[in-house]
What does this fold into?
Amino acid sequence: MTKEEIISKLTTIVKPYVQNEEGFKNLNENTDFINDLEINSANLVDIILDVEDEFKIEIDNDSMEKMLSVKATVEIIQTKINA
Amino acid sequence: MNPKQIIKNLPYQKPFLFVDELTEISESGISGNYTFKESAFFYEGHFKENPITPGVILTETMAQIGVVCLGIFLLKDKISTTTKPQIALTSNVVDFYVPVLPNEKVTVISEKEYFRFNKLKCRVKMINSKNELVCRGTISGMIIAK
It folds into this structure.
């Protein structure tokens, strides 16, 4: 799966939890979920669970703590699907 | 951890403690009950000369028994005299069916949907002593031992 495909799927997953619409419109690799999209920590958990379902992977605590930006999340997804 | 220890670890006290008894506890769910005393502070204003338990209090009761008590049980290995449970309600969607009057005893039954990355999400319902459904919904919170 290409990086663009992953970002596209991730955008769909993130959408319902976004508070900052402006940040969502400008979503790119450097977007930070908490600072740019104003997603709260409880909804961050929902995003991680949706990512697990969508990409059929399992996210552990260490990975979860790193998944705060689009870039970090894409990297973790890529590592897990290629593992 | 037994029911008494769980209640002792709750971060609430009168007049905002809405747990009398916990009757069933497992990794997958919890049941407990509470009786709304006629003297409770909110009946004086809700409503004028017509005391009915506020929906927010019913939601609070479901959250205290169904999410916080269950969360403390699930975190039992991490809670000690120095580490206490810290909680925050993060979302609730609740539908209400019948009113609860002063002195009524209600039972809360909660089933865990998931507990991951410190977020506990539960399907919770409340029934009255006639076994009628009072309210039901989904409640989530973040809970950690700190």
